[in-house]
Write a structure and sequence with these properties.
The structure is a single chain. By secondary structure, the chain is mainly α. It contains six helices and no strands. The radius of gyration is 31 Å and the shape is rod-shaped.
């Protein structure tokens, strides 16, 4: 994230130089067209003058569109890199949530009772360890949301800001679900005793 933020601060000089040369070429082409219009012979009829003016106006419109496109190349390149990095953070948030599928606060440890089947996952976390695990997941989601916010500190782009807000909403929503599980552990589960066991490797 720090490396990407530093990259946002630096101008992409090869791209800027290339864009500048293209814009100069477009302006030079337009100037040549205008000069050609004013150098029409005096005996030129109205149709020739109108055609020359129409060609000049068309070239001016296309030049404006081309300059607008070229001027935004650097912004679009930086936006693409920011959105790719934010997509990684979004994926990490979903991975954190996915790994909680087998972490049921009502059944923290497998008991071998009728609730388990041959396909049931092995539950090895005690209520205390499950509570710590869920707490760590909430912290990781919070970090993911805060790291996403760092991208718009140096790169104030509306599309990137919208993606950051989406990630923050996602992490806040997932974190709220985690805290509901923790509350269930405290309300319905046994007393969360740190002596109940150690976190497995």
């Amino acid at each position: 994230t720090a490396a990407t933020r530093a990259w946002f601060k630096q101008p992409i000089w090869p791209l800027r130089i290339g864009v500048g040369l293209c814009i100069l070429a477009l302006v030079a082409s337009f100037v040549v067209t205008i000069i050609a219009v004013f150098q029409l012979p005096a005996e030129s009829n109205a149709i020739e003058v109108i055609q020359a003016i129409d060609a000049g106006v068309n070239e001016l419109v296309f030049m404006g569109i081309a300059i607008f496109f070229l001027w935004g190349l650097e912004l679009r390149r930086k936006r693409a890199r920011a959105l790719a990095a934010l997509h990684e953070l979004r994926s990490l948030a979903h991975i954190i949530d996915m790994h909680q599928l087998t972490k049921d606060p009502e059944r923290p440890v497998s008991t071998g009772r009728s609730g388990d089947t041959a396909s049931s996952p092995q539950r090895i976390l005690t209520p205390f360890l499950l509570s710590r695990y869920l707490d760590y997941c909430s912290e990781m989601l919070s970090i993911a949301g805060k790291v996403a916010a760092l991208y718009v500190q140096e790169f104030n782009d509306p599309a990137t800001l919208a993606a950051v807000n989406e990630i923050e909403d996602l992490t806040n929503s997932l974190s709220s679900q985690i805290w509901l599980k923790i509350m269930m552990l405290h309300q319905e589960g046994p007393r969360l005793d740190p002596r109940a066991g150690a976190m497995p490797s």
